[in-house]
Structures are given as structure tokens and as C-alpha cells.
Amino acid sequence: MRIGIDLGGTKTEVVGLSTRGEELGRRRIATPRSYEASLDAMVELVAWIEAETAERGSVGVGIPGALSPATGKVKNANSTWLIGRRLADDLAAALARPVRVMNDANCFALSEATDGAAAGADVVFGVILGTGVGGAIVVGGRCLEGPNRIAGEWGHNPLPWPRHGELPGPTCYCGKRGCVETFVSGPGLERDYRALTGEDLRGPEITERASAGDAGAAEVLGRYRDRLARALASVINIVDPDVVVLGGGLSNVGGLPESVAAAVPRYVFSDEVRTRVVRHMHGDSSGVRGAAWLWSETREP
Fold first, then answer.
1. Which candidate, 38, 56, 217, 259, has a CA 20 to 30 Å from the CA of 201?
2. What is the DSSP pairing of strand 66-67 with strand 58-63?
3. E strand spans, the chain
4. Are the C-beta atoms of 2 and 291 separated by less than 8 Å?
């Protein structure tokens, strides 16, 4: 059995998968707001799934951050109580077995590349469009991490081919301006709508208004699609993936993969674009399933 844990900012989930990807058990709890309590919760979830299935399993964990290659400690985590902690070492000691820990966007991409919307593709770029903008690259069934553990972090590149009014761009929490994340995240969409109409609406409300024929909402969503297409085109120019999989809350905007796929060829440096743009298959289960797939009998991540 492969055990996956998704340690999120608000919820922590465990799943047990068979070697064929069949779900053997699943449980979700609220994420404790301290390091020690989070560690205890993960140990308890592993004990629960192993009792539920009467099997011992390998353990993979997805986190909203990464392990520093220099120190082995957690960095870049919005669950700030994890930062500076040796999560992989501490959990391995508590469970008396090796543990693999990886960024949650990597787990999402690995899940969709293994048995999801991009199953069978050799090169996959996974995208998370939510409060932030994450990305990950899977090649031959393995996550590409890079020496700095930041492969796929397209959200902190500048928005390409800027239009009038897009420079210098909004300030990003990373300290720079005009990052892709500031335009195609949920807050970016909401900021654009507010700038046009003076009204504060959440992303789902904007999409509902656009569907109902609201001109301002439709204009903002049209701009969003074009910005996303430009940002993905710059990734395609470098990575040239077989498939781009969209995940996160904004990926559920009606017609988004199709409209972005239609716009991308305007910006890609090729006479034709064969890269498919698709919506996720496993939804918010992709992260925990991908964590389980960090252990593979045929391909070692």
C-alpha cells in the first residue's frame, strides 16, 4: 500500500492506494496550527489508515512549501509553523520508516500525470490557480525538482507580452511587481474586477455574473483568459510539455481550458501547438493521491 498525506493550511488528509491506484481508505481532519500537533496528527492518520486496511505502507507527504536542499528544513511554506523544521526527518523517526516530502503542486502534477487527466503523457506541466499560482513539471512519471527545489514556479516570473496598463504591475508578496501570480490568481481576478467596476466580488460571483451576461464581468474574464494564455505560452516555449493540467479553484471556470488552448497558439513560438490544455481529473484529491505516488515500484521520484 502507498500512503499519501496532504498537509494543507486548513485541512490534512490521508489516503491509502493500492499499487493499481485503487483507493483503500481516506480520512480528512482540520490541520492543527502548531508544528508538534501537525506531526502528531500525521502519525495518527498513518496509524488509522494502516488499521483500516490491515496493511503497512510507504508514506509520502505533500506540503505547501519545499525542503531546502541546503538544510533539509522546510522553506517557502504559507503554513508558517512548518518553516525551519526538519519535517521529513522528524516524521520518519516518528513512523520508523523513510518518508518522502514534496511541494503540494508537485504532488498535484504527479497525480494527474500518473492516473489522471494527463495519464500516459511523457512531459506534464501542472498548474494550480487559486489564492496563489503554483506549478510543477513531471517528466517520465517523475517530478522535476531542480537544484533549488523551485522547478515549475512560473507564478513568480513576470507576466509576458504586457499590455497597456499592466506595467509595472501589482506588488507581489515575493517583493517584486508584475508577477504572473498577481494577475491570474483568485485575488488577481478580483482586483481586476474591482479596478474596472469599483465593486468587491469573489471569483465565483464574477464568473456567475459573466455567465448571466454582465459586460464588466465578461470583460474581466476575457482579460483573465488572455493573461493565462500568455503566461502558459512562455512555459510552453521553454518546457514544451505534452499536456498542461489546470487545477485549483479557478480551473473550474466554465470553458477555461478550451478558451486558453485556443488563445495559446498566438503566443507560442511554433507553427502549430500540439500541447493539450485540460482540466484536472481528481480535483482536490490530486494532492493527496500524488503524495502517495511519490513512492513507485517502477520509477523512483
1. 259
2. unpaired
3. 2-7, 11-17, 23-30, 58-63, 66-67, 74-75, 99-103, 123-129, 133-139, 142-144, 243-247, 276-279
4. no
CA-based end-to-end distance of the chain? 17
- In this prediction, residue 299 carries a pLDDT of 45
pTM for this one?
0.91
DSSP state of 118: T
Contact 207, 194 (CB under 8 A): no
Q: Are strands 123-129 and 133-139 parallel, antiparallel or unpaired?
A: antiparallel
> Does residue 300 surpass a pLDDT of 80?
no
User: Residue 162: its pLDDT value, please?
Assistant: 97
* Cell representation of residue 85: 523544521
* Distance between CA atoms of residues 60 and 102, nearest Å: 8
Question: What DSSP designation does 179 have?
Answer: B
